């Protein structure tokens, strides 16, 4: 089910844009990966989920999830695929701001304190968004095991996770798309 070459082509075709962009970290960039263009597409999302489930095969966690909104379709797809394979798995979503009413939660979903979670993400640049998700997950008592993402832009995220003791694994790096670390082709 995981067809890496097909997924790479879909990302290249639909998500990769060149131009002037400001990133979540405030950094400027000459290219952008609009991953929603693939994570909300039937021919790509199941493949992303299959690739990530494969990466978790050796040590499946109880939970997957990450920072809204990039992580959300990925989380839902992994949970769906696990369900179709009769594997137990639950998902969570981490809010950027706590909900101001109702439960006032940062972390939404069917989790229990002490459970193991793999953080998922679409794109990693500095890693700041997922580090925030990790912080909020740990604050509610979850044990973060590692981080998985679709694409690593190779701009320090992997090192930032490593510094805190987390390993980052991704389906692709920008080099798979012929982009070097400075954003050139
Ligand atoms: O590794 P980082 O430097 O944190 O950058 C990557 C983050 O930026 C994007 O999210 P964005 O903040 O654009 O938010 P959105 O998912 O809510 O659109 C992307 O989905 C990652 O979460
Ligand atoms: O760093 C970011 O904000 C970022 C980079 C990118 O390529 N794609 C994205 O969604 N966010």
TrEMBL record:
Pathway the protein contributes to = Pyrimidine metabolism; UMP biosynthesis via de novo pathway; UMP from orotate: step 1/2
- Keyword Glycosyltransferase annotated: yes
Its biological purpose: Catalyzes the transfer of a ribosyl phosphate group from 5-phosphoribose 1-diphosphate to orotate, leading to the formation of orotidine monophosphate (OMP).
Q: Please list the GO biological process terms of this entry.
A: 'de novo' UMP biosynthetic process; pyrimidine nucleobase biosynthetic process
The UniProt record gives the binding positions of orotate as: 125, 153
Alphabetized UniProt keyword annotations: Glycosyltransferase, Magnesium, Pyrimidine biosynthesis, Transferase
UniProt name for this protein: Orotate phosphoribosyltransferase
Looking at the record's lineage, which domain of life comes first? Bacteria
Q: Name one GO molecular function term.
A: orotate phosphoribosyltransferase activity
Phosphoribosyltransferase domain residues: 108-159
Q: Where does 5-phospho-alpha-D-ribose 1-diphosphate bind?
A: 95-96, 99, 101, 121-129
CDD domains per record:
PRTases_typeI
Subunit comment: Homodimer.
Q: Which Gene3D superfamilies match?
A: 3.40.50.2020
Q: Does the keyword Zinc apply?
A: no
Q: Which cofactor does it need?
A: Mg(2+)
The protein's gene is named pyrE
**Record's family?**
Belongs to the purine/pyrimidine phosphoribosyltransferase family. PyrE subfamily.
Q: Which reaction does it catalyse?
A: orotidine 5'-phosphate + diphosphate = orotate + 5-phospho-alpha-D-ribose 1-diphosphate
Q: What is its EC number?
A: 2.4.2.10
């Amino acid at each position: 089910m995981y067809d890496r070459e097909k997924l790479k082509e879909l990302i290249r075709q639909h998500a990769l844009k060149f131009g002037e962009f400001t990133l979540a970290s405030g950094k400027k960039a000459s290219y952008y990966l609009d991953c929603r263009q693939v994570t909300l597409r039937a021919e790509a999302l199941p493949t992303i989920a299959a690739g990530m489930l494969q990466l978790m095969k050796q040590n499946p966690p109880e939970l997957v999830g990450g920072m809204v909104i990039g992580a959300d379709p990925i989380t839902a797809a992994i949970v769906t695929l696990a369900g179709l394979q009769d594997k137990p798995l639950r998902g969570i979503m981490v809010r950027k701001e706590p909900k101001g009413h109702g439960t006032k939660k940062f972390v939404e979903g069917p989790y229990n304190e002490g459970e193991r979670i793999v953080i998922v993400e679409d794109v990693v640049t500095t890693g700041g968004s997922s580090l925030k998700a990790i912080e909020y997950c740990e604050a509610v008592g979850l044990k973060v095991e590692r981080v998985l993402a679709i694409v690593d832009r190779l701009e320090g995220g992997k090192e930032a996770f490593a510094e805190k003791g987390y390993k980052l694994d991704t389906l692709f790096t920008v080099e798979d798309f012929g982009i070097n670390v400075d954003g050139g082709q």
